[in-house]
Specification:
The protein is mostly helical and 141 residues long. Helix content is 82%, strand content 0%.
Length: 141
């Protein structure tokens, strides 16, 4: 099976077919435990070869105007989408600042108290779970 995969990978006596080569490599790995490492290395080489061929094909078709156009389209869609969100977020913070300027410390202390309570509850739960899962030792006599 391994030899058939190798022949399909390189096109020796057959048409070159990478997907069929991978199938034969996988069949060889499942047929014998001794073939696991060689087929793993052959599959890694096959995947590397496929990625390199894809990169070569991509860079043959690549142009900087294509890159510039795609960046320009992304930037204009980003600015249109987030302009409304940024304006509404700024209004929210202005209103929050006007209403909570004098009492900011009370809000901060409330948030910190809730976070501390959650940490203590989770810590207690984890400690009880660890005590229940610990092996019971017989008392010494």
């Amino acid at each position: 099976m391994f030899n058939l995969g190798y022949m399909h990978e390189l096109g020796i006596g057959r048409t070159q077919d990478m997907h069929l080569a991978k199938r034969y490599y996988d069949m060889a790995a499942s047929a014998s435990a001794d073939a696991h490492v060689p087929t793993m290395l052959a599959n890694a080489k096959l995947h590397t070869k496929l990625h390199i061929e894809w990169l070569i094909q991509f860079y043959k078709e690549f142009t900087f105007t294509m890159l510039y156009d795609s960046i320009l389209v992304w930037y204009t869609s980003w600015t249109v989408y987030f302009t409304d969100k940024i304006d509404s977020l700024a209004d929210f913070f202005v209103q929050l600042d006007e209403s909570a300027t004098e009492d900011w410390d009370i809000y901060l202390m409330s948030v910190l108290a809730v976070v501390l309570g959650l940490v203590m509850a989770l810590r207690g739960h984890n400690m009880r779970a660890a005590q229940q899962n610990a092996p019971q030792q017989p008392p010494n006599q």
